[in-house]
Design goal:
Blueprint: E1 15-23, E2 42-48, E3 55-56, H1 63-67, H2 78-95, E4 102-106, H3 114-119, E5 123-127, H4 131-139, E6 144-145, H5 151-161, E7 164-170, H6 179-189, E8 190-201, H7 203-208, E9 221-222, H8 225-233, E10 237-245, E11 251-258, H9 267-278, H10 290-311, E12 315-318, H11 322-331, E13 341-342, E14 360-361, H12 364-369, E15 373-376, H13 382-388, H14 390-394, E16 398-401, E17 407-408
Parallel strand pairs: 4-5, 4-7, 5-6, 7-8, 12-13, 12-15, 13-14, 15-16
Antiparallel strand pairs: 1-2, 2-3, 3-9, 8-11, 10-11, 16-17
Helix pairs in contact: 5-6
The structure holds zinc ion.
Pfam family, one: Methyltransf_23
Keywords: Methyltransferase, Transferase
Domain Methyltransferase putative zinc binding: 6-67
Length: 410
């Protein structure tokens, strides 16, 4: 097999960041009648470019396959809608947007964010690749076109609707395989005096927080501010400001403008870049070591589960998040070590986790089975879930989180 090439600069990707082996797509939950069929596994081998330092997963699965009928509806999460509302308030204040302005959001989902701009009387347009979700947005009165953004689509949309004063791309930038063409699409959409706002999970937080279960096939690029600047620069955009957010374990929100109009970047840009440099993110060598951390986390979890099995202790899971599947597949954990998991989403009940074939049951199953341990897979929500499981814990079941380090909760 030939060495994959960097999606930013074209250099051969010869350095590994972390190799998690083979995994099926993390949202491909199985029905009972699919268990006896074959299942496609793809590599989860994340590499770093020795030239531009972009940490990336080659596009093993075509994006069209992942996103064309993507089932996630942002409005299902109250906290996410509220986050979008605060963003809109901030953007309106920063940019002085009013009823003469035009806002475009890329990957606008069901209009969870644009409902806030429309409520302010601002002309708004969504671009959403999944046709079924774009239809939901249009039905709600949020104008949305169903397209994959690239430079050509950006130019077409700008011709039809006019240049945008604000282009928003939240939590999509890291999820597009051709990130440079996507960035050129953003440049094509934005007015010469407009601004582009992008939210990305921050690589520095992924490393520091050991968020290795946020590595999955749909997550193509693992970005620092430095590499984000480099990608945007290739598209004629310059980062002039940055904010650090707590979402997704730690994210960056960058504000960029067309390079020919760029002013000096804010002090926050210099501050975040300096912190990244201290964390080793400005050299290839500084990225080494993450693979060892991941291996240690895996060893601890498997050791714990095997020990439980030898003692005859039953371990069940809590939650069936996509990210749990990266962890379970990487660790090779199947139903012999984790009997079943539970989830509050009724659509998942009676289904099985991809790859590991662990059954998903309703939360009441924990009360029926009374396992000795419950492994909390969405471990970032440990406080909230521990509170929900307090009665179970009071009756003797112990709660365990796998990350950032294996811990039986006190
Ligand atoms: Zn590169």
């Amino acid at each position: 097999m030939s060495t994959p090439l960097c999606r930013l600069c074209g250099t051969e990707l010869e350095v590994t960041f972390v190799d998690l082996g083979m995994s099926p797509p993390c949202e491909s939950f199985l029905a009972a009648d699919e268990l006896d069929q074959g299942e496609t596994f793809y590599p989860l081998h994340v590499r770093i470019c020795s030239e531009c330092l972009l940490v990336q997963l080659p596009a093993y699965i075509p994006a069209e396959e992942i996103f064309s009928d993507y089932a996630y509806f942002s409005s299902y999460s109250d906290s996410w809608v509220a986050h979008a509302g605060r963003f809109v308030e901030d953007a309106i204040a920063r940019r002085g947007l009013d009823d003469s302005s035009f806002v475009v959001e890329v990957a606008s989902n069901d209009g969870y964010l644009l409902q806030h701009t429309i409520a302010k009387g601002i002309r708004s347009l969504g671009i959403e690749p999944a046709a079924n979700i774009a239809q939901v947005a249009n039905d709600k009165g949020i104008p949305t076109v169903s397209r994959f953004l690239g430079e050509a689509v950006g130019k077409t949309v700008a011709q039809e609707h006019g240049p945008a004063d604000l282009v928003v791309a939240n939590n999509v930038f890291a999820h597009v395989p051709d990130i440079v063409d996507f960035a050129k699409g953003l440049r094509a959409l934005v007015a010469d005096d407009g601004v582009v706002s992008i939210e990305i999970p921050h690589l520095q937080r992924l490393i520091e927080g050991r968020l290795y279960d946020t590595i999955y096939h749909e997550h193509f690029s693992y970005l620092s501010l430095l590499t984000t600047q480099r990608v945007l620069a290739a598209a004629g955009l310059t980062v002039v400001d940055v904010q650090e957010l707590t979402t997704h374990g730690g994210s960056l929100r960058t504000w960029s403008v067309p390079t020919e109009r760029a002013t000096a970047p804010s002090d926050d840009v210099a501050r975040v870049l300096a912190a990244e440099e201290r964390a080793g993110l400005h050299t290839v060598e500084g990225h080494q070591g993450f693979a060892d951390v991941v291996a240690a986390v895996r060893d601890d979890l498997i050791e714990f589960l095997i020990d439980c099995r030898r003692k005859g202790a039953v371990v069940a899971g809590y939650g069936a998040p996509g990210k749990g599947n990266t962890l379970l597949n990487h660790c090779g954990i199947r139903s012999d070590l984790l009997s079943f998991t539970v989830d509050r989403n009724p659509h998942k009940h009676g289904h099985f986790l991809p790859g590991t074939h662990i059954p998903i049951r309703p939360p009441e199953a924990l009360d029926e089975e009374r396992p000795d341990y419950v492994l909390i897979l969405p471990w970032n929500l440990r406080e909230e879930i521990a509170a929900q499981l307090a009665p179970l814990k009071a009756s003797g079941t112990q709660l365990v989180v796998p990350l950032p380090a294996l811990e039986v909760l006190p």
